[in-house]
Amino acid sequence: MATFLSSLGRLALRRRGVTLLLWLLIFGGMGFAASSAPPPPADTFSMPGTQSQEAFDLLTKKFPDARADGSSARVVVRAPEGQKITDAGQRTEVGRLVAELGTSSPQVVTATDPYKTSAVSISKDGTTAYTVVTYKVPALKVSDKAHDALDAAVEKARKAGLTVEAGGDAVKVDQTMGGTGEKVGILVSAIVLVLTFGSMIAAGMPLITALIGVGIGISGITALGSTLGLSGTTSTLAMMIGLAVGIDYALFIVSRFRAERIEGRTPEEAAGRAVGTAGSAVVFAGLTVIVALAGLAVVGVPMLTKMGLAAAGTVAVAVLVAITLVPALLGFASVKVMARKGRLQYAVKPLSERRQRKAAKHASKSTKGGRPNLGARWASYVLRHPVAVLLVGAVGLGTVAVPAASLELGLPGEGSMSTKTTQRKAYDMLSQSFGPGFNGPLTVTVQANGAKAAGDKVGAALRTTDGVASVSPATANKADDTAILNVIPKTGPTEHKTEQLVHQLRSATSGLERGTASRILVTGQTAMFIDFSQTLDDALLPYLGLVVGLAFLLLMVVFRSLLVPLKAALGFLLSVTAALGAVVAIFQWGWLADVLGIEQTGPIMSTMPIFMIGVVFGLAMDYEVFLVSRMRESYVHGARPAEAVVDGFRHGGRVVAAAAVIMTSVFSGFIMEDNDFIKMIGFALAIAVLFDAFIVRMALVPALFALLGRSAWWLPKWLDRILPRVDVEGEKLDQHATAPAPHSPRERALVG
């Protein structure tokens, strides 16, 4: 592996013009393909095998005129204080609003008149009413013109004295990202890169190559969207993790290139060794990430499967960019990529043998004979106090992880939006005037011969169920073989009692089915959210087992050890569990909610643990592979176990810390967004990266190496014969390469 990648790196640098041109052609070609591709399909949310999906499919088949593919907006109207919405003057204004909404856009099918549809459209106190505006198209295809027309009609009614707010999937949601927080995160990333490398060229290269890789990946997803059924949101995870690993992979190779140049090697030799060693680590780190993302298929939700595979493809592109485009760009800036201080010593053609020895001697004095850098000093400290560091780190993370035992999963809705949004205001108005369950109605389907009569019997039975506020009369289709009823719970859609009610209704239907000779199903948005959360909850452990198991095998091949991949997997589980515990404490229990500006606590978003595992696992394995591969490289070249740990931190500690700070700053930018669930994602990813990089990889890993000694690299002989040899540490790169220079007396004293 190392030999092949080294040759690839040398070739990319020698043919840097051709390599750069090829990548630019790929980038431009994918961009052209994306721009000329048909529009991606609308988001389709399906969960095969669940009762909610079965009922939804039945409704689509039996009620074809209901336009299940359309969207709607629910406009809530409240009369001025002291007046009724049923007063003559208010009826006139509401009538004007309804008329304008019905003709506001060609995409509108109809707007219901609350005074003609049913008494349910007007609150019992007579102060509030609502109208439902139905559109011909899905929410993502509602035009800007239609959105503007809706906003204009609402604003006109407000000027007439009414309180008017709008909710529903057809209402435009402000999803603009890149606010102040994100800009600060990007600025911090740039500063960290500059401080790490001391060169603007070296700092910009990881950002540029990562953006090229993500651009190719996202363009590919867009180009194949209509063919493979990839919606516009499929690229969300691909963009997030593609950018993250793209920066990391380029950062690792640029850092190794600079280290090889400091040792006195020519640009071509440095590129070969950088891609052969750090590039090998990048390839295997990328494989572990691809395993984690492709593993989303075990969840059984098509949307997540597509997102995972699309993100895995983007990661594969990031790996290829790192091992080909990065060395090519380094060939264009082999001198300027070095730190400004002392740059002139590299501004020559191939160094003579004498100058190579002189440069290597100078580098040895500056990095080994002199004062050890911060990474080496920290590793030496941990090696002297392994038990204390291990206990403090493990107990600390374990304590933070305790709240994770109380994790409750749910999905976001309008009730979780900022109180400044019109959707949240409409949600609150409906809850106040019609009851909390009005925002989360359940739909019961009754399939039978004579469905109307059977539906009425089912409705009469459901009205007596504890937790049910009301049940609508049964509505049958033209064939009278399927009827639907709307059930309004007494509690809100995200409350635990509503979930219990759904399970209770489903349990009660078995007896009702025998009594009415029918097939009864419970669905609706609330029920689908509950089923989705349950599906993800059931899939969490199998997904973890698959990801950790396959990653264990990959890392065992890379490091030829049983204990190294085992501690890597256990450390990842510890950091993710601690991050989940912190999320539960803040977003579910409300600790520090005021500090972060969280307006409402509640269940944790169902998709967050799965996404967090995929993203954090990828970054954690990046840090593990890069840091430990340097230790392994030093160990196989003759260093003692303790010296190998110090070597790994001296060369890789600063780079891993920089990568972690960059990712933390980028993810932290999401915390400043208005939406609480976006805050949650940003906080979860930021805190998980901090825990994993600085506590697990930078503290627990060297502490365990200190305690295990040589046994950390133990592998049974029979297993050693079976496993393929991939030479990640680069033993075969240069048969004449010298072993790492011995540690200085001071460092030997530090490591004991």
Topology:
Elements: H1 2-14, H2 16-36, H3 51-62, E1 72-78, H4 88-102, E2 108-111, E3 128-135, H5 144-159, E4 163-167, H6 180-197, H7 200-223, H8 225-228, H9 235-262, H10 267-294, H11 302-332, H12 353-369, H13 374-384, H14 386-401, E5 409-410, H15 422-434, E6 442-447, H16 451-462, E7 468-471, E8 475-476, E9 482-489, H17 496-516, E10 519-523, H18 525-559, H19 563-588, H20 593-596, E11 604-605, H21 607-636, H22 641-668, H23 676-708, H24 717-722, H25 745-751
Parallel strand pairs: 5-11
Antiparallel strand pairs: 1-3, 1-4, 2-3, 6-9, 6-10, 7-9, 8-9
Helix pairs in contact: 1-2, 1-10, 1-11, 2-7, 2-11, 4-5, 6-7, 6-22, 7-9, 7-11, 9-10, 9-11, 9-21, 9-22, 10-11, 10-18, 10-21, 13-22, 13-23, 14-19, 14-23, 18-19, 18-21, 19-21, 19-23, 21-22, 21-23, 22-23
